[in-house]
Amino acid sequence: MQLIGLMIIRNENDILSEVLNEHLKYCDHIFILDGTDENPELSKSICTGCKNTTYYTDNDLPSNYPRPIRDGCRQFLLDKIRNKFGFNNWIAILHGDELFVDDPRAIIKKYDRYFEALTLDTLLYFIHKEQLPFKLDPSRSFQEQIYWYVGPGWPEARLFKNKKNSNYKDISQLGKVIPEGLNINYKTTFKIKHYTFRNPEQQSNRAKDRVITNKWSTLHYSAALNQKYYLNENDFGKRFYYWISKKPVKPRINDPLLLRLMQDLSENFSKKRIR
Q1: Where are the beta strands (DSSP E) in 36-139?
Q2: Which residues pair with 119 in a beta bridge?
Q3: Residue 133 burial by CB count (10 A; 0-12/13-18/19+): exposed, middle or buried?
Q4: What letters, b where the CB count within 10 A reaches 16 and e where it falls short, cover 232-255?
Q5: What are 36-55's pLDDT values in tens digits?
Q6: What are the φ/ψ torsions at residue 9 (nearest 5 degrees)?
Q7: What is the pTM of this model?
């Protein structure tokens, strides 16, 4: 089975090298579309310096694609993937600030026979107030430095089967990460680590960028815009986040389903409550 990475990045230089090298442990090849405007030369150097990557910027996008880059622009990369690798492989939606907890190949192997798309739970990582003042040390793994997270996780699709009838029909769309035309999207309880908040300045800049790119209200990012490190349940949203923790997230792919369910239930009752 081929697993091809489809990756859109924007201003992730502080952690990009580590993220890419982690993803390349699982992906046969990664196609990257880079919308970075903060030191784009460094971003290009990191991406092109890795083996098994194909790199593009928004300058390579046809004129009908929107700028700034958004979710629908993945169709450009999907076409490039199909030109080189054909169809019926699996695609991993990769972000410049996310890491898989479990091997995505093993996750696909469990469900390939039954489903065409798979959703995982995104654990949102942030800097806790106990870590103030904080400065990311580039000589150390960022995973060792950013270890507080909220759960049980925001569900987002990250894996899908590359089928001829599946495409991003609206290239200007936001908020939909997998193409249309897939039969069943199955929600798993496997986790992704999402390192959105890495320091006050970075999270404020990211929030401003999202407000412009996504045309969302500043209320969506009020905490980040105010450069708050510690975020309470109102900042995260009560529907998907209920507790905070710094306990390491362990891979679960080899655990029986019943054990995984018991672990999920245990997390919901044993972690420190935001309330």
Answers
A1: 53-57, 90-95, 98-100, 117-126
A2: 157, 187
A3: exposed
A4: eeebbeeeebbbbbeeebeebbee
A5: 999 999 999 999 999 999 99
A6: -130, 155
A7: 0.92
